[in-house]
Amino acid sequence: MSSNKTKPTATSIPLFLNSIVPEQKQKDSRKLYTLMERVTGAHGILWGTSIIGFGDYHYKYQSGREGDWFLIGFSPRKKALTVYLMCDVSHEKIAFEGLGKFTKGKGCLYIKKLEDIDLAILEKILKTSISLTVRRNQ
């Protein structure tokens, strides 16, 4: 059985955040870090080379594959900030109304700049995602 390629590392979060360019993406990443830390009550951990994950949960698929993963996270990608939600955003009852300018993937949101979205609504989305993920994996 294969294991996850992306794993938690001991890399310094401050060093990682300091390395983000351009400056606006670094500022947005710091804001997201603070928001996710507050929502989860957990410090961020760098997973792989570019994902900061918060909290953790254990999953087990019907196939028998199991592992540990973060509850929510983000990555400052070149084109957008990617916000990782551990639920299928197209099927779950997550309210995106009023969030602002973003696009979504199966389990993530793509945000070009934090000034384009309402952070209070993003916080509600993060909390809902955590609740759904924890409930699904009990």
Report on this structure:
- There is one protein chain.
- This protein has 138 residues and is an alpha+beta fold.
- The protein has a single domain (13-136), classed as Aspartate Aminotransferase, domain 1, CATH 3.90.1150.200.
- It is 30% helix and 22% strand.
- The chain has three helices and eight strands; from the N terminus they run ααββββββββα.
- The protein has helices spanning 13-18, 23-40, 119-136; strands at 45-47, 51-54, 57-60, 66-69, 72-76, 81-85, 103-104, 108-111.
- It has a six-stranded antiparallel β-sheet, covered by helices on one side.
- It is globular.
- The relative contact order is 0.16.
- The mean pLDDT is 93.
Map the helices and strands:
Blueprint: H1 13-18, H2 23-40, E1 45-47, E2 51-54, E3 57-60, E4 66-69, E5 72-76, E6 81-85, E7 103-104, E8 108-111, H3 119-136
Antiparallel strand pairs: 1-2, 2-5, 3-4, 5-6, 6-8, 7-8
Please give a handful of descriptors for the protein shown:
single chain; 138 residues; alpha+beta; six-stranded antiparallel beta sheet; 30% helix
Quick synopsis:
With 138 residues, the chain is an alpha+beta fold. Helices cover 30% and strands 22% of the residues. Strand 3 and strand 4 form a beta hairpin.
Spans of at least 5 consecutive residues whose pLDDT stays below 50 are none
Major sheet details: 6 strands, antiparallel
Radius of gyration: 15 Å
Shape: globular
CATH class: Alpha Beta
Give the proportion of residues in helices. Answer: 25-40%
Query: What is the number of E strands?
Result: 8
CATH-level-2 architecture: Alpha-Beta Complex
Helices and strands, in order, run as: HHEEEEEEEEH
The CATH topology: Aspartate Aminotransferase, domain 1
Q: How would you state the average pLDDT, rounded?
A: 93
Return the structural class.
alpha+beta
How many domains make up the coordinates?
A: 1
By DSSP (H or I, 4+ residues per run), the number of helices equals 3
Q: Report strand %.
A: 15-25%
Q: What is the straight-line distance between the termini?
A: 22 Å
